[in-house]
Amino acid sequence: MFVSTSLLVITNQGIVTMRYHNLQACNWLRVPQICALFSCRYSRFIRQVTRVRRCGGRDRLLLICSCLLLLQSSIACALEPLEIAVIANNRVPESIELAHYYMQQRQIPDNHLILIDASNDETCSRKHFNQAIRDPILQQINGLADRKKIRCLVTIYGVPLRIHRQQVDTSKEKGAGKDDQAAVDSELALILSGSYPLDGWLANPYFLGFRQTKTVLKRDNVLMVSRLDGPDPAIVRRIIDDSISTERNGLQGRACFDARWPKSEKNKPDAYGLYDSAIHRAAELVRSRYLLPVRLDSKSELFQQGDCPNTALYCGWYSLARYIDAFTWTKGSVGFHVASSECSTLKRKDSQVWCKRMLENGIGATIGPVFEPYVLGFPQPDIFFGHLVDGYLSLAECYLISLPYLSWQMVLIGDPLYLPFSHDNKTEKLLEKK
Predict the structure, then answer these.
(1) What is the Cβ-side half-sphere exposure of residue 276, based on CA atoms within 13 angstroms?
(2) Contact by Cβ (8 Å): 376, 404
């Protein structure tokens, strides 16, 4: 019993997500891989834990106790407020107001507010991004006394959303026509990385699918980035309030997953088949936690109007720039739709892209691309939702470890600190089930 309890203490501090109740059953190879996602400060802990398997009964217990004592002085839970810097646009008064509101609600230090003078258009040029967004942010981060603690940036309503492709004179510049259009947030994730290739995507070193792959980017130079944005300031304020309220009271509703094929009928290892299988696995993982009822549809037709009342979690595809009003979203709900350019705008009134419409209809957090990302550019739903329902990692951390590529098209909209399945609420729900 002591062994199980100690292990749960470790996992509850965001060191590793594990679902085992005895040491013999653990897959210890996962420990250093997951620990490496968060901070090199756990290197001593990793070395100690990987020795546990070789120890006998009494020695094993003593070694676990020493690991816990080692962690006590430098534990970091899932993302913390002290590790966040908030970015607002001086040219948009609502941006500054919302930044102050969020920082106050989450107790983020006042000196972690970064102000920029950028265009208030949703789309900017690469030059404008470099000069008005990237460079001032980097300068202000470097000016923070506790800059090494910053793990996450939050862009606020009014900060440009995407960078359009450079217009290059093909007669003068080698490499013309390169695909350098990207989400502002995806480029900000690499603000500490110095110079890097802009021609297409770059493998995310935190993505669990690449943990055995050598990547151009180094983990130490990659930040989490989340956006508090929407069609209007009231929606942004609601996202903040709903996230905090749901953490206290628990996420209610059901999970709806909309695959395109039955699991057994799409076994080809192409991108579409692999992603559809990941949606099936996401549904299975959520169902296995007994926290929410799960609906999995594996027909080619999408959910239709009224099919998904009280939706708390959602992933499905494919309706391009045509939101289907199949859902009523519960407070703090999280979901995303797999289709191109579904976050190309959050402000254009006539747009029916999914991110904008879901935010208007009440969702608490969503993900989408600003341009064409290809299906492999989306977060893996089994990794994202599987870790989200585990309740050990914040929204931004679940996004980071499930996202294959950076310097690319994807945007996370929501409170990065959000923990919709906090463990107090999970325990209450499990007791209710029993």
Answers:
(1) 21
(2) yes
Cβ burial 317-330 (10 Å sphere, 16+ → b, else e): bebebebbebbebb
Q: Tokens for 4?
A: 């199980």
Q: What angle do CA 173, 175, 176 make, to 5 degrees?
A: 65
Nearest alpha-carbon partner for 240 in 31, 97, 136, 340: 97
Structure tokens at 21: 């109740």
* DSSP secondary structure letter of residue 42: G
Contact 217, 204 (CB under 8 A): yes
Secondary structure class of 132 (helix, strand, coil): helix
Spatial CA neighbour of 367 closest among 410, 326, 325:
410
Q: Is 283 exposed, middle or buried (0-12, 13-18, 19+ CB in 10 A)?
A: buried
> Which of 364, 315, 367 is CA-nearest to residue 343?
367
pLDDT tens per residue across all 434 residues of the chain: 223 332 323 333 333 333 333 333 333 233 433 444 444 334 333 434 444 444 455 555 544 544 544 443 333 458 999 999 999 999 999 999 999 999 999 999 999 999 999 999 999 999 999 999 999 999 999 999 999 999 999 999 999 999 998 865 444 433 334 678 999 999 999 999 999 999 899 999 999 999 889 999 999 999 999 999 999 999 999 999 999 999 999 999 999 999 999 886 555 678 999 999 999 999 999 999 989 999 999 998 999 999 999 999 999 999 999 999 999 999 999 999 999 999 999 999 999 999 999 999 999 999 999 999 999 999 999 999 999 999 999 999 999 999 999 999 999 999 999 999 985 555 455 445 54
Sign of CA dihedral 13, 19, 21, 25: negative
